[in-house]
Amino acid sequence: MSALSALPFLKPVHLRSPRSSPGGQRRHTLPASEFRCLSPEDAVSVFEIEREAFISVSGDCPLHLDEIRHFLNLCPELSLGWFEEGRLVAFIIGSLWDQERLSQEALTLHKPRGTVVHIHVLAVHRTFRQQGKGSILMWRYLQYLRCLPFARRALLMCEDFLVPFYQKCGFEALGPCEVTVGELAFIEMQHPVRGHAFMRRNSGC
């Protein structure tokens, strides 16, 4: 059984019923809201959202287009996209890591035997910001990770101004991250994936 088939909260959420056409035939419409893992075919849409979200703030993107394709080919099951009527509006991309803390290699490598999920990027399309979508998507992603038997912790690195956002999502700061990108420095944050027995028992996993 695939990881996705065991996860009821990742199944498409159909908020709109198929409508009937004047001739009486049912006309199918896209679901109003859907959460699913991303595929390499989503890479361009992902990059367009990421580029707009990050370049204006930091001058660079966490992942370039070829790196997005790289991770969506190697570990699409560690990504999650939020689609509204078929349009990508927010996403998370992760990979596996096999050390306690992140290093420069973690930016480009996927360690299939790792137990740490490195969250590379979370971004929301500019039209849908300030609506709480980032927090909702992260919550769903963490619920999803709890259903993956190999996942033990989630790690990410962020700039100082984003620390309060991730703390509200349940992450704790570990201190300065070893990784640097140009002149940018980061705080490393973690979230335990295991140790939530009650939530796992009630998550449908």
From TrEMBL:
Alphabetical list of InterPro entries matching this protein: Acyl_CoA_acyltransferase, GNAT_dom, SNAT-like
Major site of localization recorded for this protein: cytoplasm
PROSITE patterns named in the record: GNAT
Keyword terms: Acyltransferase, Biological rhythms, Cytoplasm, Melatonin biosynthesis, Phosphoprotein, Transferase
Pathway assigned to this chain's UniProt record: Aromatic compound metabolism; melatonin biosynthesis; melatonin from serotonin: step 1/2
Name under which the protein is recorded: Serotonin N-acetyltransferase
GO BP terms in the entry: circadian rhythm; melatonin biosynthetic process; response to light stimulus
CDD domains: NAT_SF
Chain's gene name: Aanat
Highest rank taxon of the organism: Eukaryota
Family: Belongs to the acetyltransferase family. AANAT subfamily.
